Protein 1
Amino acid sequence: MSKEVTEEGEASQPARDYVDPPPEPLFDAEELTVWSFYRAVIAEFIATLLFLYITVATVIGYNKQTDHPCETVGLLGVAWAFGGMIFILVYSTAGISGGHINPAVTFGLFLVRRVSLIRAISYMVAQCLGAICGVGLAKGIMKNFYDEFGGGANTVFPTYSKGTALGAEIIGTFVLVYTVFSATDPKRNARDSHVPVLAPLSIGFAVFLVHLATIPITGTGINPARSFGPAVIYNSGKVWGDQWIFWLGPFMGALAAALYHQHVMRATTIKALGSFTANPTN
C-alpha cells in the first residue's frame, strides 16, 4: 500500500525539465590524458591573446587623442572594444573551453565545481601567457606609441584612492561573474532555448557596461590576465605597485558572485537543509 501511494505521489509531481550537471572532481588526473583538455587550454591562450591585442591597441589609439575628439574611438569606443571582443570570443570558444578568457571567471566556476583544479590552474596560466603575448604583439605593431601612451596598463587614477579602486574592481567583477552564472544556468538553458545564443551577448554587455563605469577609476581590470599582460610588457613601477588591486579585487568579486548565485539564487544551502528535514527517520 505504501509503495502504491509513493508511486502515485511521484507521478503527480511534474518532471524536472533540466538536470544539474554533476560537480567536477577536485582533482582529475585523467584530464591530462585527453586531447580535448589541451585543445581547451590552447583555445583559452589564443582567445586571451586576441582579446589583449585588440583591446590594448584600442586603448593606445584612444590615448593618442589630441584636441580633435572625433580623431579616435573615445571612451565609449574603448568600452565597446572590450565588450565586443568578449562577445565574439565567448561565442567562438564556449563549446571548446567554456569561453572563460579571464582568471576571475575561471576561479568563480571552480568555486561552484564546474571545472576541476587542474583545469582551473591550466586555464589561468594559459590566459596569463596569452595576455603577455597579445600585449607583446600590440607593442611590436605600435612600437612608436606603446611606451609613450601607457602601454594599455591598468593603474589607479590619481583622483581616486586605492580603496575606492579595489571596491570598483570587486563590484565590476561581481557583475561580470554573476552574469556568467546566470547566463549559463542549466535550468535557464533547459527552459529557454534561445539562451545559449544570447549568453555571450549578455556577458559582452556586462563587460561593456562595467568599463563605462570604471574606466575613469582604474582603466577597468575585472580580469587579472588583462592587467598582468600589460604590466609585464610595459614594466613600470607604478603599474606593479597597483597590480595587487587587479588580482585581489577580481578574485573577491568572483567569490562574492559564486556565493550569491549558489546560496541565494540557487538556494543550495536551503535545499540541502530541506533534504534533512523533509523525510525524517524514526
Protein 2
Amino acid sequence: MDSSDSVSVDIEKISLGGKEHIIQTGRGSVSVAVFGDQDKPALVTYPDLALNHMSCFQGLFFCPEAASLLLHNFCIYQICPPGHEVGNLLGATAISSDIPVLSVDDLADQVADVLDYFGLDAVMCLGVTAGAYILTLFAMKYRERVIGLMLVSPLCRAPSWTEWLYNKFLSNLLYFYGMCDLMKDCLIQRYFSKEARGNDLIPESDIVQACRSLLDERLSANVLRFLEAINGRYDITSGLRKLQCRTLIFVGEDSPFYSEALHMTSKLDRRYSALVEVQACGSVVTEEQPHAMLIPMEYFLMGYGLYRPCQFSSSPRSPLSPSCISPELLSPESMGIKLKPIKTRVSLQI
C-alpha cells in the first residue's frame, strides 16, 4: 500500500495466552481458562448454553479496546459448564450417565469452589444468558464474594411453559440426533439477530459460520445436561433487590430473552443498576456487537477505580469493595448511563 494511504496506529501489544485448568470440585470437575496476571483482581466469566469461553467471549476479548480495559485491569477466569471445555485443547469427554445432572444451585456452588481453588475473595462477574443466571444465583448465595455483575441477556425467572416445552424439544433432539443441523439452527436463533443469521439472499455472517463450526465440537450428552439444569431453574426475582453489588445489563433488541432482561432490570435497585439495549443484535452481544459494550463497561468500572489504561492507586490485590467508594459514585449517573435504556448502534466505516 502506498504510504500516503496508510495509517499508523500505536496499539499496545496484549497477550491473550491463557492456561487451561481442570479443577475437581465437590460437584464434579470443571474447566477454567485463566488469562492474565493472577496478582490482579479477578473477573469470572460464564457462557451460555452449548458455548464455552472461545465461542462466547473471544469476540469481546479480541477487541483491542476491550483488552486494554479488561485484560489490564483483571485476571480473567473463564469457567466452562461441565463438559463444555475446548475440545482440541483438553479433549472433552462425555460425562457418564451414572453421574446425576447438576442443578443450577450445584453449578453456582461450583463457581465458589473454583474461587476457593485459586484463593480468590471478591470477584467481578460477566455472564451470558444461562451463564448470567448462574452468576446471579452465585451472587445471591455468596454476596460477599461478588463486587459487581455484568450480565448479557440475563435470565432471572423460571422458564415459561413455552420455553419449558421448547427446551424439552431441544432435549429430545439432542438425545436422539445429537448436535445435528436442526439443533445448531435452533441455537443460532438463540444467539444471533436475523441480520447476522442471513436469509435466502444474504449469507450468514462470518461470526455465525464460526459459531456453527465450534458447535460441532460440543458433545451432545454434555450440552443436554446443562440444558436440563437451566430448564429446571427457579425464579430468583425476589432476591434481586438484596444484591450487594452494582449491576450492568446488556441485551440485544432481537434477543429471545429481551423481555427477561427488562423484567430483571425493573426488579433491581435502580440506584445501583443500568440497562443498555443494543440495536440489531441478538442475545450474545459479546460476539455479535462487542464494541457496543465498551463505553458502558468503561464507565461502570470507573466506579471501582478501574480505568483504561490501568492506573491502580494501591496494590492490585486490594479488594475493590463498593464500600470504599464515595456514595455519589454508586449512582447510575456516575456510570454515564441513564436509568432508562440506552439504544446503541455500532457501525464501522473503513
Protein 3
Amino acid sequence: MDLKVLALVLAGGKGTRLAPLTAERAKPAVPFGGKYRIIDFVLSNLINSGIYSIYVLIQFRSQSLLQHLRDGWQFGGMLQNQFIIPVPAQMRSAGETWYSGTADAVYQNFNLIEQSAPDIVVLFGADHIYRMDVRQMIRYHRDKGAGVTISALPVEKKFAKDFGVIEIDEDGRILAFHEKKPDAPTMPGNPEMVLASMGNYIFERELLLDLVGKDAADPQSSHDFGTNILPRLVDSVPMYAYDFQTNHIAGDPPGGTPYWRDVGTLDAYYESNMDMRAIDPPLNLYNRNWPLRTAGYSDPPAKFAFDEENRRGEAIDSILSGGCILSGGVVRRSVLGRHVFVHSYAQVEDCIVFDNVDIGRRCKIRRAIIEKNVRIPPDTVIGYDAEEDRKRYQVTESGLVVIKGERSPVPLSSLSI
C-alpha cells in the first residue's frame, strides 16, 4: 500500500538523570558509541525504513543538537517531500508557553500536520538505543485497522515505575494503559515481567489532531500522551500493541532478540555503551544493510604508536573513533570518541571517553565517563578510590566516575579590513 507518512521526533527532553552529560545539551544530543549521538538511532531507523519527511521537535538546550543535525542530517537535492527539519518551540499555544508535555508539543505543531496532510503520523521519541524497521510496525497498524499503535516489549516488573505498562488481549488489542505505576499488572503467565511501551506511536492523522485538540482544551490535563491521552482511549478507539520482538532488520541473522535500551540514567547509559564494544554485541553497528548514520567529519584514522615493553599503543575489546592516537598507552574494554590522545604508560579500562580528551602519561583510569575536552594531568588515578574520586568528581552509587568537560570553542571566520 502507498501511504503518506509524516514523522514527528520528540527531541526536547532535559535528560536530568543523565547530568552532567546534559548540562550543555539535550539528551538526544548526548554522544554514544564513540562517533554517534543518541538521536542518530531514531533518525537512522526512519531513513532506513523509507520515511523521509521528518520534523524534529526540540526545546531544552538545543544548540548542540542543532549543530549535529546541521552537520549530519541535511538532505541535499530538490525533492521537497524529503526533509529533516528541526522545529524549535515557538509558543504557538494560546498562553504562549513552552511545551508542557508530549501531547502539547504535537498540539503546538498542529499546523505542520495540517499542511502536509499525511495518512498517518509516526510519533517517536529520540532518546533510546535500538534499531527498528518502522515499515513492519506501519503494516501491522494498517492490518489491524488501528487508530493508534504502540510499540511494546517485555521488561522486568521492577522497571514498571519508569514506563507506560500495557495490558492486551490475545489479538494484541490494548485493554488498559498504566503510566509509570510500580504496581502495574504483569504479563499473563509471567509474573516477573510487564509489557512496556517504548514511547513510539503511530496515529491516524485525523484522530491525532482531534485528540491533541481536545487535550489542549482540558485545564486538568498535564498534556502528556502516556499520562492523559492513551489511558482514555482504551474503550473508544481501536488501539493495538506492536510486538517489537517480532521486528527483523535486513542483514541480521534470523532468530535474534531485538535490542532496545532506555539510557535514562548514567549507569544505564554506561552499560549500553559497554554492550556496543562486546565481542558479540547485541546490537550490530557493522550491518551495512542497516547503517547507523551520523555526522561525517574529515578525521584521520586512529593511530597506535610505539612497540616497547610497557610502552605499547594498543586497544583490546574497545571501540575507537577517528583521530584517536594511542601513543604508548593501553585501552581495554572502552569506547573512545574522536581525537582522544592516550599518552605513554597510561591505562584506560572500562571507560567511555568523549571527543578531544587528552590522557596524560602514567594515568590509571577505570570505570569512568569522561566528557569532551577534558585534560587529565600525568600520573592521575581515577576509579580506584571512591572516597578520593568523590572529592573531585561525580560518582554514582555503582561507583561509576563522571568527569565533567569543557565547552568546545567555536571557530569564526575572519574579516580583513
